[in-house]
Specification:
The complex is a heterodimer. In chain A, 32% of the residues lie in helices and 24% in strands. Chain A is α/β, with parallel strands linked by helices. A seven-stranded mixed sheet of chain A has the order 2-1-3-7-4-5-6. In chain A, a hairpin with a 5-residue loop joins strand 5 and strand 6. Classes of the chains: A alpha/beta, B alpha+beta. The A-B interface holds A 1-3, 6-7, 56-58, 60-61, 63-64, 122-125, 129, 132-133, 136-139 and B 15-20, 41, 67-68, 111, 115-116, 126-128, 131-132, 135, 138-139, 142, 145-146, 149, 153, 157-161, 163-164, 171-172, 419-420.
């Protein structure tokens, strides 16, 4: 096999579950941030003590890995001018709708309806749909964190300036790895 | 709304299909004049991208054409290249390839049935709505899909875009113990797939029967996956390397995907699970064969909506065949047959979850690709879907525009089109004059 297992088998893990970290995307262009974060987290010397790592190309594959009892982090990039990764905690309100909580710039916790994701999925079952389906089936992890890593690029830059995309990706990946490592280390 | 005026109906994007496309319907004085299934995803030029690349890269590059059916691309590519190189694989490699294909059929059919198609039969807008009505059934479907993915991980190296398929065999054969670990899940899966098939066979299907030429591979003693002759319900029986004598592709203005036609009359044809079951029912595994006789369908079946039953039968077959291969498996050594690069040409067809897929390659003396041709199943079904819609629409023109759009989407979904593969789907625009 040409590539060593970049996925750890969840079925072999003890039930006192380590956090699960899922990078979403592919190995291409501005889509690669989620996977690169996972790749770098796996390379850390203590990665096996930090968590279990997975890469998803098709969002519904996440459903295979959700475990109600396991804190789960989902990592993806967003096109944004924000200078820091956005950490969203996904839950549901009394009406059963998905909501996301986050700290604003002044450190105040805010809650909003689950952001409508601008999905580019070619398979018509995007991350929001995956989370809604999981919620409907009662398989959502008790603690689900969505890391939105900002890439400050225009559409034209994304489409036509690969060097700028690589630089922006690298910045987002390094920020993501630092923040997620901090959180996993203190879990 | 009246029949005698221009009427335009648009659907922003076809939902619950793999990929992005649009549908434009032109109605003049209450008569359907034209139906255009537009595939507007940009062309991806995979054939051109392969030219000049080492032939070893082909299975990994073609796998990227689709995240749902990468095995179909890999299998067709390696067989075609092995033909070009004069490579003969061992019976053990053949069985391991069939096992890998079983994993893809289970995963792909499981996703299509439970997340995309079954919601139609209950008036649900999505599988999320379906899950609220039928949580146990959706959970069961997701578990089936998960088991298919596990098999892909074990035999293919990973579930999405597997990396273990090589020209000549596999980079690494799984250990027997790795396959045996899957056995309990597969025993559960076989029973579950039978229950799913019984469930979907009981759905209410629209009374719509087409006069199709159905095309599939046919093998002397196995249900068609990796090899066979090209046969049809109209009597075609030909070797795969004569594909171009019987089929061709056409450019149409409204689609970035080519549309395949049957030669010489440039007629349409139908590929997919329903074609396979119609033409190969006797080759189904014992449980699937028995179930086919019990589901209340008179075979051969020409109602495209009942493709979902054929998909269920194929999931049963895939679980049963996978169990048989796992039980007999004693390892696979060598995992790969060697070869010397040479000038050659090879053509092959296999059965993707969505239907027959054809590849042809020419190789150079230094082991590179000189020419490549890839004909995916959705481009073969595309024109047939348009004709189905044209035949179906008159019976629903009295409905409101949004109801017509929904009905068109349901018919299209029964084909499980993969538009990403075909561009190589759906906005609906109905124009009434």
């Amino acid at each position: 096999m040409k590539e060593s297992g970049d996925h750890q088998s969840i079925s072999t893990l003890p039930q006192n579950a380590l956090p699960l970290v899922i990078g979403i995307g592919s190995s291409h262009g501005d889509d690669c941030v989620g996977w690169e974060v996972v790749d770098r987290l796996i390379l850390q010397p203590d990665s096996k003590r930090l968590g279990v790592f997975r890469k998803a190309a098709v969002p519904h594959d996440i459903l295979d890995w959700f475990d109600c009892g396991r804190t789960t982090h989902i990592v993806d990039a967003i096109i944004s001018n924000a200078d820091q990764p956005l950490r969203l905690t996904v839950a549901h309100n009394l009406q059963g709708d998905l909501i996301a909580s986050f700290m604003d710039e002044s450190g105040v916790e805010r809650t909003c309806g689950f952001p409508r994701l601008q999905s580019n999925s070619t398979h018509q079952f995007d991350l929001l749909s995956v989370l809604q389906l999981s919620h409907a089936l009662g398989t959502m992890p008790a603690e689900l964190v969505l890391w939105a890593l900002p890439i400050c690029l225009s559409k034209i830059e994304v489409d036509y300036q690969p060097t700028r995309v690589r630089l922006a990706n690298k910045h987002a990946v390094l920020q993501g790895v630092r923040r997620i490592t901090q959180e996993l280390s203190h879990a | 709304m009246t029949d005698k005026r221009t009427r335009t109906i648009e659907v922003g994007a076809l939902t619950r299909v793999e990929g992005e496309g649009a549908l434009r319907v032109m109605i003049d004085d209450g008569v359907v004049q034209d139906v255009q299934l537009s595939i507007y995803e940009p062309p991806r030029f995979f054939e051109a991208l392969l030219r000049g690349r080492p032939l070893e890269d082909v299975p990994d590059i073609t796998a990227r054409i689709c995240g749902i059916c990468p095995i179909a691309y890999q299998m067709t590519a390696v067989h075609a290249l092995e033909q070009a190189l004069g490579v003969h694989i061992t019976p053990e490699i053949r069985q391991l390839r069939r096992l890998l294909y079983c994993g893809e059929w289970i995963e792909s059919h499981g996703v299509h049935m439970h997340l995309l198609h079954i919601p139609d039969f209950f008036g649900c807008a999505s599988s999320i709505e379906l899950a609220k009505q039928f949580p146990d059934e959706v959970t069961r479907g997701l578990r089936l899909k998960k088991i298919g993915n596990r098999l892909l991980e074990v035999t293919g190296g990973r579930a999405v875009h597997p990396v273990n398929v090589a020209v000549g065999g596999f980079y690494r054969a799984p250990r027997k113990s790795e396959l045996l670990e899957l056995k309990e899940d597969f025993l559960w899966g076989l029973d579950a797939a039978i229950e799913v098939t019984k469930w979907v066979a009981g759905f209410e299907f629209p009374d719509f029967v087409g006069s199709y030429e159905m095309v599939a591979l046919q093998h002397s003693h196995d249900y068609p996956m990796n090899e066979g002759r090209l046969v049809s319900t109209a009597g075609l029986s030909t070797a795969v390397n004569e594909f171009e004598q019987h089929f061709d592709e056409r450019h149409v203005r409204h689609s970035t995907a080519l549309q395949a036609v049957r030669l010489p009359a440039e007629t349409t044809y139908f590929v997919g699970p329903l074609a396979r079951v119609n033409l190969n029912r006797n080759q189904l595994s014992p449980s699937a064969r028995q179930l086919a006789d019990q589901v209340g369908i008179a075979w051969p079946c020409f109602n495209p909506y009942q493709s979902i039953v054929a998909r269920g039968l194929e999931v049963v077959h895939a679980f049963e065949e996978a169990l048989s291969i796992m039980s007999d498996y004693q390892g696979c050594s060598p995992a790969r047959v060697g070869y010397e690069p040479q000038v050659g040409e090879g053509a092959w067809a296999t059965e993707a979850p969505r239907g027959m897929i054809f590849h042809r390659y020419q190789t150079t003396a230094d082991g590179r690709i000189a020419a490549a041709k890839i004909v995916p199943p959705t481009s073969q079904n595309q024109r047939q879907i348009e004709l189905d819609l044209a035949a179906y629409l008159p019976s629903i023109l009295h409905l409101a525009d949004n109801e017509i759009a929904g009905a068109c989407e349901r018919l299209i979904r029964s084909y499980d089109p993969c538009i990403s593969c075909a561009t190589h789907f759906l906005k609906l625009q109905i124009e009434r004059r």
